[in-house]
Amino acid sequence: MSHEEQEKSNTALDLVKAFFAAKERHDLAATMALFSDDAVYIFPLAASGKQENWFTYKGKEAVTKYQGQVLERFRQIKMLEPKYFVTTDGSNVFVESRGDYIAQDGTAYNNVYIFKFVIRDDKIAEGYEYANPVTYAKLAGLPIG
């Protein structure tokens, strides 16, 4: 890996770690400062079982609204033992982790996650959150299947 590639890889990794740290602090402004203006945030796994995105948020305003709702819904947001994988060119960061969340009403929400972040111009341009949709649907009272 060249010096330039190593720097891009480190920058991408720092961005993603900052994303999780800001969410754990419930700091919406810091979370959103990491995203590009044209960011998208996608949940590719649907509770219906269909091969379609469950939720898609396009643009910084929509992503901000979604991230704000997460921070409001959960009083604790922790990612346990995250494992980070960065592509050589620093354009993609993958994260494997387990979530240790607590809803405002005290209900535990423990899911498993794979995240993919696409980095452009030192910002998160795309976020993909792969989590067990059944686990979330049960918490939120959403239909399954």
From TrEMBL:
It holds the Pfam family SnoaL_2. Coiled coil: none annotated. InterPro entries: NTF2-like_dom_sf, SnoaL-like. Residues 16-126 form the SnoaL-like domain. This is SnoaL-like domain-containing protein. It comes from Acidisarcina polymorpha.
